[in-house]
Amino acid sequence: MRDSKIAKVARSLGHVQKMYRNLNDLVDQQGKTLQRVNDNVVESKMNSGATLKDMKKANKNEGTLKEKLASGDCSVLCLAIWFGIVVLMFYFDLQAPTRTHL
Q1: H/E/C letters for each residue in 24-89?
Q2: If you average pLDDT over residues 65-77, what whole number do you get?
Q3: Which of 29, 36, 69, 99 has its Cα between 20 and 30 A from that of 18?
Q4: Dist CA 26 CA 28 (whole Å)
Q5: Is 99 helix (H, G, I), strand (E, B) or coil?
Q6: CA 51 – CA 44 distance, rounded (Å)
Q7: Three-class secondary structure of residue 100 per DSSP
Q8: What does the angle CA 57 – CA 61 – CA 66 come to, to the nearest 5 degrees?
Q9: What distance in Å separates the CA atoms of residue 15 and residue 21, rounded to the nearest whole number?
Q10: Rounded to an integer, what distance in angstroms lies between the CA atom of residue 27 and that of residue 34?
Q11: Residue boundaries of the structural domains of the chain
């Protein structure tokens, strides 16, 4: 009787030991996950800083339409004229009477 109780306690201790190992594995996995999250946060912060710097530089270099036209950059004006010509061509093409060939 006593031997069976000792064996039962030994099995219970084996189960407890297994649960502690499982718990240790889970804590280890969560620690690794938290480390990856921390690394990602640090990397995101560095990327955000670089992005902000690039955005400020781009904003400084962009200039307004008035400044571009004043400096001789007529690409926007040329594009507007081209678009106007295309619209007029389509308008006159739609206005022309259609002829049927027999």
Answers
A1: HHHHHHHHHHHHHHHHHHHHHHHHHHHHHHHHHHHHHHHCCHHHHHHCCCCHHHHHHHHHHHHHHH
A2: 71
A3: 36
A4: 5
A5: coil
A6: 10
A7: coil
A8: 145
A9: 10
A10: 10
A11: 1-62, 64-102
Question: Six-digit token pair at 63?
Answer: 């200039």
- Spell out the residues 6+ positions from residue 30 whose beta carbon is closer than 8 angstroms to its own: none
30, two tokens: 């969560």
Q: Is residue 31's pLDDT more than 70? A: yes
d(CA 51, CA 56): 9
Tokens 């502690």, residue located = 20
Helix (H) or strand (E) holding 18: helix 2-62
Query: Over the stretch 35-65, which tens digit does the pLDDT of each residue have?
Result: 999 998 888 888 888 888 888 887 777 767 6
What is the Cα–Cα distance from 99 to 93, expressed in whole angstroms?
12
pTM, two decimals, is: 0.43
